[in-house]
Specification:
The complex is a heterodimer of chains A (274) and B (365). Chain A has 274 residues and is mostly helical. Chain A is built from 15 helices and no strands. Chain A is globular, with a radius of gyration of 23 Å. Chain B has two domains: 223 residues, P-loop containing nucleotide triphosphate hydrolases (Rossmann fold, 3-Layer(aba) Sandwich), CATH 3.40.50.300; 120 residues, OB fold (Dihydrolipoamide Acetyltransferase, E2P), CATH 2.40.50.140. The chains are: A mainly alpha (274), B alpha+beta (365). Chains A and B meet through helix 9 and helix 10 of A and strand 6 and helix 2 of B.
């Protein structure tokens, strides 16, 4: 496809599609720069000046948005680090170590892929309430670590690494841990990046569990916080402020996308595991 | 007891035996080739020596120490893998240093040894490259360098030339021959390429059917194969095996009657071979040639002509249906389909009994 010219009709269709996708974002961005008063008078005022930064100033000054952003960052980072560590260790174990019931355990892991979150949400809620984990960071992070996908993904990736490398390292006098840490783990970085990005995005965008677990507003993640603000914007915050919150909230995720776009595209194309 | 000693090594995968009571002695600084067809157990034997597989029974000793109870890294062995097995994320320098670091060798010493190995193998320019940036031949050298640098007591080479193209293979073969003069260790190479084994090894160990079939110098396994399998396996093209019957003896040497009736007076001592015994007569191509005009010989029809420039092999079928291979010097003029008469150097013929046991001709005076 490299160097091939696209048909003008295809280009038009792509531009149209891109326009449809971008329009709400541009509208959101424009609304965020309008004063609430102006928008109360005319919701179409977004397309003409004057524009203002007062909504962003309000976020930085008084609102809980920064707290929610920090909560989301802590929860998403904690989930990502936890999933990467657990999945790498478990993946290495399933792919390379011999231990009793290895196959059976792996089948159980695979079965975990088939269990929807909805099926376990009630017992999980009860368990966390019993352990006093609601309204805490561990309470928000721990459920992400129980997913089977990462273990399955990393197991497949470790399996694809030639065993000759293990053997060469063993003959080089490497211990099992040195072999894992210095030889195999660095080779899984592409898979780690892909899994990390997906886990981070999933944790960042998760709405349901934080809605159940975080009931005090200072423990809200951005998704829950923004949703709670939407419910009462007419009375308090106003449309401009709400849109500024949305734009503000999307900045970290935008950074993740830009930094890891190669891994995301590769994962989407299904070529992460060679 | 210096050198390598294998004592009654056996291994099976489930119900399938791979090695049965294999014993072998390798002298210090000796170059040994394990040669055999696929599935003969040669790679398994190499991996047992390296510690990458565990034998079901038997012992492995190196320089007077039992090593089969030790981990692979503690055996004093270095191995060059078939696919090199270089760590892709490390530079050449890091690849070479990895084993020494694990062994706790001082940094200065590591640097010195890397420089020395790089110099010998002419890879000094490549030290900061990663394996992915190198050609197959260069990777092969790095793999050898990684092995040399450990100053092992035993080198294991698992089909070291099989991934190289024909030109590079020839060059690397020479380099491997030079390697042995530079290292103070025995070398064992697994190969299915007999040209490699014949040109490089001091002794060849031929494996088949879970057992060692013969251990001998290249000349021995070629000229005096231990059994019919070795006779068929060693030599390119292989020895032709013609069905025959012992016709009698003449001056203590057997005469054999080929299926189409011709009697050959061999130089094989009669011994236990009695008249009427069904045998196979083994003939190397160099002992079968086109008969001169008027010379008696075996009538045959040429089926395939293999011209190699300096010599030509004629694959022909005798009247009885047996296949025979003749050697003709130069480019030759015979074509497939030609009817020819083949003269046989009968005193060079070998005789194999039904059990595969070999009876060789007595050397000419």
């Amino acid at each position: 496809m490299k160097g091939a010219r696209l048909h003008p009709l295809v280009v038009m269709a792509l531009l149209l599609g891109a326009g449809v996708m971008l329009a709400p974002m541009v509208w959101t961005l424009l609304l965020s720069f309008k004063s609430n008063a102006a928008l109360m008078a005319d919701s179409g005022a977004a397309f003409s000046g004057p524009y203002t930064l007062e909504n962003y100033a309000a976020i930085l000054k008084g609102s809980l948005t920064l707290q929610w952003l920090a909560n989301s960052l802590i929860v998403a980072t904690g989930a990502t680090v936890g999933v990467l560590v657990l999945s790498s260790l478990a993946g290495y174990g399933f792919a390379r170590l011999e231990f009793p019931f290895r196959r059976t355990l792996f089948v159980i892991v695979l079965l975990g892929l088939a269990v929807p979150e909805q099926a376990v949400i009630l017992p999980r809620h009860q368990l966390f309430a019993m352990l006093g984990l609601h309204n805490s960071y561990p309470g928000l992070i721990l459920p992400s670590l129980t997913g089977s996908f990462g273990v399955f993904f990393m197991t497949q990736y470790f399996r694809a690494i030639p065993k000759e490398l293990d053997e060469a390292a063993l003959l080089d006098g490497a211990s099992r841990f040195t072999l894992f840490w210095k030889v195999l783990l660095p080779l899984t970085f592409p898979a780690q990046a892909t899994l990390g990005v997906f886990t981070f995005l999933a944790a960042w965008n998760d709405y349901w569990w934080p809605l159940i677990s975080a009931t005090t507003s200072d423990r809200f993640t951005l998704t829950v916080g923004l949703a709670s603000a939407q419910m009462n914007y007419a009375q308090t915050s106003g449309l401009g402020f709400l849109m500024a919150q949305a734009v503000f909230a999307s900045i970290p995720i935008l950074v993740v996308y830009i930094a890891f776009q190669k891994q995301i595209v590769r994962a989407m194309a299904g070529t992460a595991v060679r | 007891m210096s050198g390598l000693e294998l004592i009654d090594v056996s291994k099976s995968y489930g119900a399938t035996p791979v090695l049965e009571r294999v014993s072998l002695s390798v002298l210090p600084r000796e170059f040994i080739a394990f040669l055999g067809p696929s599935g003969s157990g040669k790679s398994t034997l190499l991996r047992i020596i390296a510690g990458l597989e565990t034998a079901d029974s038997g012992e492995v000793w190196l320089d007077g120490e039992r090593i089969d109870t030790r981990s692979p890294g503690a055996r004093g062995i270095a191995m060059v893998f078939q696919h090199y097995a270089l760590y892709p994320h490390m530079t050449v320098r890091e690849n070479m240093a990895f084993g020494l670091r694990n062994a706790g060798v001082a940094r200065d010493e590591i640097t010195r040894r890397i420089a020395q190995a790089a110099d010998i193998l002419e890879i000094a320019e490549q030290l900061d490259k990663k394996p992915g940036q190198m050609s197959g031949g260069q990777r092969q050298r790095v793999a050898i360098g990684r092995a040399i640098i450990k100053q092992p007591r035993l080198f294991l080479l698992d089909e070291p030339l099989s991934n190289l193209d024909a030109a590079l293979r020839g060059r690397t073969r020479v380099e491997l021959a030079q390697l042995r003069t530079r290292v103070d260790a025995a070398l064992i190479m697994v190969t299915h390429d007999q040209a490699e084994a014949m040109t490089l090894a001091d002794r060849i160990v031929i494996l088949d059917d879970c057992c060692i079939q013969q251990v001998g110098t290249p000349a021995e396994v070629y000229a005096r194969p231990a059994n019919a399998f070795v006779a068929r396996f060693v030599g390119s093209p292989p020895m032709a095996m013609l069905p025959a019957t012992i016709a009698g003896e003449e001056a203590g040497r057997v005469c054999v009657r080929l299926a189409e009736g011709t009697v050959l007076a061999t130089a094989v001592p009669a011994g236990e071979l009695v008249a009427g015994t069904e045998v196979e007569v083994g003939l190397r191509p160099e002992h079968v040639r086109l008969a001169a005009p008027g010379e008696a010989g075996l009538a045959a029809q040429v089926e395939l002509v293999e011209r190699l420039g300096d010599r030509t092999f004629l694959y022909a079928k005798l009247e009885g249906g047996a296949e025979i291979i003749a050697l003709e010097p130069g480019f030759g003029t015979v074509r497939p389909g030609d009817a020819v008469t083949l003269a046989i150097d009968a005193p060079c013929a070998h005789v194999f009994t039904a059990s595969g046991a070999a009876h060789h001709p007595e050397p000419r005076a």
